[in-house]
């Protein structure tokens, strides 16, 4: 069975492709806008810009040529700040791409789709401080990026109603670490890479607010290891073949949060750098705590996270140097 992976040359996609290739065939579709062909070794790669008008025909041809049975749609633009500056482009890239993909799948008779969604679909949920975030909470995304992800979920629902698409969306929380050092996260957008960049540049990372209603006063987020996340994609493929599919979307996190201070402390342990961050004012729109309720994915897909925060940070550090050309050792 050949699985088509869009965005397979990116950070998360390359991990999914490596796991898929260990058990069967995969073909990658990517425009290499943020991904790189080196990340997928000898896996077949077809360069297509999914947002381009000709993408529907190109994708349909790829599905026929490779005998594609299911699609894992990971490709997207993912920068929240950039999406606020260039909203129309984000809708074009993320929603436009989904439209082309769904038209190609319908036309090629491919009816299984796993979609990379995001916790950004939730926005700033109004929940009591110590509550985990379930999939049933109302989605009120606050960024154009988060809105594009929610719209893509709606498009899948509509395709299911119209022509029987079998789909599931994984709402990723904060993805971290690397499964192999050469597959580290090349983007510097999340706390761990931001802190690694600061430290390897001889600077200190910044803590935005230590007066939140959390045990140490810093914000708590849910970090999930990219390899655990990649495994969830394979489990979702199995789910799509099932007769009973009670749910459309699944949180992917650990259900256990880590505070900014705890992550920075672990970064000090993993790297050997002295971490002594300055604390500045809170950023607007940062909730105190966002941690996934993962009961649904555990009970329905049988998936559970296996990796600890220490393993995420250790592997992120191992992946940092090869990508950023830094020596992966602390200064003496
Ligand atoms: N990294 C995270 O913490 C996180 C959290 C939540 C959701 N996500 C989602 O996971 C997915 C992958 O994220 P990532 O961190 O691996 O990002 P990434 O930028 O490393 O990977 C995205 C891949 O998609 C490709 N791509 C982008 N636009 C394309 C287009 N128009 N046509 C074809 N290919 C295109 C890029 O070249 C890249 O290879 C995205 O959908 C993102 O929204 C990521």
Features:
3-stranded mixed β-sheet; Rossmann fold; 39% helix; 7-stranded parallel β-sheet; 10 helices; alpha/beta; 332 residues; binds nicotinamide-adenine-dinucleotide; UDP-galactose 4-epimerase, domain 1; 2 domains
Q: State the oligomer.
A: single chain
Show unreliable segments: none
Secondary-structure-derived class: alpha/beta
Query: What's the total count of β strands?
Result: 14
The biggest beta sheet, please?
7 strands, parallel
Please give the CATH class of the largest domain. Alpha Beta
**Shape summary:** globular
Cα-to-Cα separation, first versus last residue: 51 Å
Bound molecules: nicotinamide-adenine-dinucleotide
Percent helix range: 25-40%
CATH superfamily of the largest domain: NAD(P)-binding Rossmann-like Domain
Strand order of the largest sheet: 3-2-1-4-5-6-11
Tally the structural domains. Answer: 2
Number of discrete helical segments: 10
Reported CATH architecture of the largest domain? 3-Layer(aba) Sandwich
Write down the secondary-structure element order.
Answer: EHEEHEHHEHEEHEEEHEEHEEHH
**CATH level 3 topology of the largest domain:** Rossmann fold
Q: Overall mean pLDDT score?
A: 95
Describe it for me?
Helix 2 crosses helix 4. With 332 residues, the chain is an alpha/beta fold. The longest helix has 22 residues. The protein has 2 domains: 203 residues, Rossmann fold (3-Layer(aba) Sandwich), CATH 3.40.50.720; 118 residues, UDP-galactose 4-epimerase, domain 1, CATH 3.90.25. It contains 10 helices and 14 strands. The protein is 39% helix and 16% strand. Strands 3-2-1-4-5-6-11 form a 7-stranded parallel sheet, sandwiched between helices. A 3-stranded mixed sheet has the order 12-9-14. Strand 1, helix 1 and strand 2 form a beta-alpha-beta unit. It starts with a strand and ends in an 8-residue tail after the last helix. The mean pLDDT is 95. The structure holds nicotinamide-adenine-dinucleotide. Nicotinamide-adenine-dinucleotide binds next to helix 1, helix 4, strand 5 and strand 7.
